[in-house]
Amino acid sequence: MSAPEGPLSLMFPVESFPEGEIAPPMEPDHPTWDLMPPWTDPLADRGAYRTPSSKARIETPHGPAIRFTDRGPKPHALVTGETWWRNAHLGCRVVPTARGVEHCNDGWFLADAHAGLVFRIETSRRYYFFGIEARDRLVLYRRNDDDWHVLDWRRVELPDGPLTLEAELRDDLITVRCPECDVELYARDEAFPAGRMGFRSLGESELLALSVEVDAEERARNAERLTALRERTARLGRDVPDAVPAGEFDLSGGLTLKACCDFAAEGRNDLLFNGQDGLTAHTWEGEELWRHPEPAFLCEPGPVRPEGGRRLYLLVGCRQSRDWFTTAGHPTKNTVADELVVLDGTDGRELVRRKLPEDPVSTGELRKYDLSFEVGCGERPGVLDFIVRQWRQELGGAGLHLWAYDMEGEELWQRQVETPYGHHGAVHCADINRDGELEVLAGGTCFSAGGELMWTHDLADEMRRIHGADHYDSVLVQPPELWPHADPLVVLAAGSAGVYVVDALTGRTRALHRVGHAQWTAWGRLRDDMPGPQFMVGTRWGNYGILSLFSPAGERLWAAQPDYVLQGSKPVKWSPEGPEFMWINTSESGMGLYDGECRLVKPLEALRRAFRGKTRMQVPARALRRRPGGRHRLALTIGERMLLFRPEH
Question: Residue 340 in contact with residue 351, Cβ under 8 Å?
Answer without folding.
Answer: no
